[in-house]
């Protein structure tokens, strides 16, 4: 349920003014937004982006280039807000369910995740989602959060800051020595062996931006639930799996799933989500006042205790945000639904398989990403004998190929074949690595 009563942060004068707006904002915008494009083949999908054609883009997972449907949605909201900032934002936020824009965004996201709109918390990025979840957990002194040595800075620091504040502790374990030779069984066995008597929460990363490994979260979650001992909650940083794999996130087994939507999902820059079940939302304590939970506002207004269970909307950080971007998130999820999760995942898998097979023929290249598409997704991490990863990336850039290095203590070069690329481009990138390696 969105915030459906205008008593929230509004005034009687505002009510009168808003009532002067004609029909709902959503239908007005829908009327002036172009019909969804034809996305029936990959050239048509690639044509939605305005990427610089002088380069081959193999780092587009870093931050999204907005595709046409997203640019048009942003532009529609921007025009409306610029023309009528108060009326449009006030109406969009606090209108009845049918016209409530954040609720429409949550509904589109929920359809993609396979869950309920009311369980989707809107955030500005992965980092904020992780910080909100870890700080929201009722951690006590003596309890521990277990994570892995492979997680991202944002994940480790969210845990460190939250556990320090709660007097709890944090411990990291490696899940593998070499990602490329890990298996589902070895990952599960290592994780289970790492859980100690104080562990109450396990933090994992779905697709690692360090090595490209994709953890089998479904199987890991089942193993965590089947073990004896105190139950543990599973927090997943899912940013590099969402939008490039064929998964139903809401049934995958994560207790808290945090992701930015401004990478593989192509949603506007500065958007993200956390998904959890109602029971798991109820365990958390919010950190930032929400602008989308009526109970919280009413309790404040009436100086009465807030008694209803915590929920996704109450966890969504309040204060005004870039609404033209947040609201246009729905267009990105619609675009992914139109392309089809299975089709997107198969295309990305085939480009990544091709990239790995091509690089594997080069004796001077060591690939760190598992060969199997079941244990990887859209990233190929590798080293070239005798070259620093940053120098490989520089040399590729000199050939107009945009690659990246992984931002970790141990760093690799990365190529990320995505919907931006064609098999011919992958071949060009593999050939360029061959030239660089000598
Ligand atoms: C695994 C992982 N987690 C979190 C982040 C941070 O994402 P965001 O910018 O959405 O906070 C990144 C950045 O690329 C990442 O690779």
Model description:
The protein has 438 residues and is an alpha/beta fold. It folds into two domains: 120-338, Aspartate Aminotransferase, domain 2 (3-Layer(aba) Sandwich), CATH 3.40.640; 341-437, Aspartate Aminotransferase, domain 1 (Alpha-Beta Complex). The protein is built from 17 helices and 13 strands. The protein has a seven-stranded mixed sheet with strand order 2-8-7-6-5-3-4, with helices on both faces. Strands 9-10-13-12 form a four-stranded antiparallel sheet. The chain has a two-stranded parallel sheet with strand order 1-11. Strand 12 (404-405) and strand 13 form a beta hairpin. Helix 4 (68-83) packs across helix 5, helix 4 (68-83) packs antiparallel against helix 14 and helix 7 (126-136) runs parallel beside helix 8 (153-166). The longest helix is centred in the C-terminal third of the chain and has 20 residues, at 341-360. Mean pLDDT is 94; it is low at 9-22. Bound molecules: pyridoxal-5'-phosphate. The site of pyridoxal-5'-phosphate has 13 residues, from helix 7 and helix 8.
């Amino acid at each position: 349920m969105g915030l459906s009563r205008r008593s929230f942060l509004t005034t009687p004068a505002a009510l009168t003014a808003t009532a002067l707006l004609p029909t709902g904002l959503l239908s007005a915008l829908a009327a002036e937004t172009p019909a969804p494009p034809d996305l029936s083949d990959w050239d048509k999908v690639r044509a939605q982006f305005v990427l610089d054609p002088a380069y081959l883009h193999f780092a587009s997972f870093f931050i999204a280039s907005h595709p046409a449907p997203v640019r048009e949605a942003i532009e529609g909201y921007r025009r409306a807000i610029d023309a009528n900032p108060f009326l449009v934002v006030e109406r969009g936020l606090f209108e009845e369910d049918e016209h409530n824009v954040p609720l429409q965004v949550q509904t589109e996201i929920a359809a993609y995740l396979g869950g309920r709109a009311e369980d989707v918390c809107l955030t500005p990025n992965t980092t904020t989602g992780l910080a909100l979840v870890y700080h929201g957990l009722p951690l006590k002194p003596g309890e521990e959060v277990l994570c892995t040595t492979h997680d991202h800075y944002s994940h480790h620091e969210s845990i460190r800051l939250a556990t320090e504040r709660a007097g709890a502790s944090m411990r990291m374990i490696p899940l593998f020595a070499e990602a490329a030779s890990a298996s589902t069984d070895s990952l599960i066995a290592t994780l289970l062996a790492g859980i100690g008597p104080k562990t109450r929460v396990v933090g994992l990363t779905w697709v690692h931006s360090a090595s490209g490994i994709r953890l089998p979260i479904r199987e890991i979650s089942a193993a965590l639930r089947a073990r004896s001992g105190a139950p543990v909650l599973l927090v997943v940083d899912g940013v590099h799996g969402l939008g490039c794999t064929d998964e139903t996130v809401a049934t995958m087994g994560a207790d808290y799933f945090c992701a930015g939507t401004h990478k593989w999902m192509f949603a506007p820059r500065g958007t993200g989500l956390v998904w959890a079940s109602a029971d798991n939302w109820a365990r958390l304590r919010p950190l930032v006042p929400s602008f989308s939970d009526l109970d919280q506002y009413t309790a404040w207004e009436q100086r009465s205790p807030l008694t209803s269970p915590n929920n996704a909307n109450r966890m969504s950080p309040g204060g005004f945000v870039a609404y033209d971007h947040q609201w246009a998130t729905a267009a990105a999820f619609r675009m992914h639904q139109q392309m089809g999760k299975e089709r997107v995942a198969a295309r990305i898998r085939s480009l990544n398989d091709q990239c790995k097979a091509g690089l594997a023929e080069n004796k001077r290249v060591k690939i760190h990403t598992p060969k199997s598409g079941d244990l990887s997704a859209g990233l190929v991490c590798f080293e070239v004998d005798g070259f620093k990863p940053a120098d490989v990336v520089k040399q590729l850039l000199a050939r107009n190929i945009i690659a990246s290095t992984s931002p970790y203590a141990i760093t690799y070069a990365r190529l990320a074949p995505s919907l931006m690329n064609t098999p011919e481009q992958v071949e060009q990138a593999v050939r360029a690595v061959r030239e660089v390696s000598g």
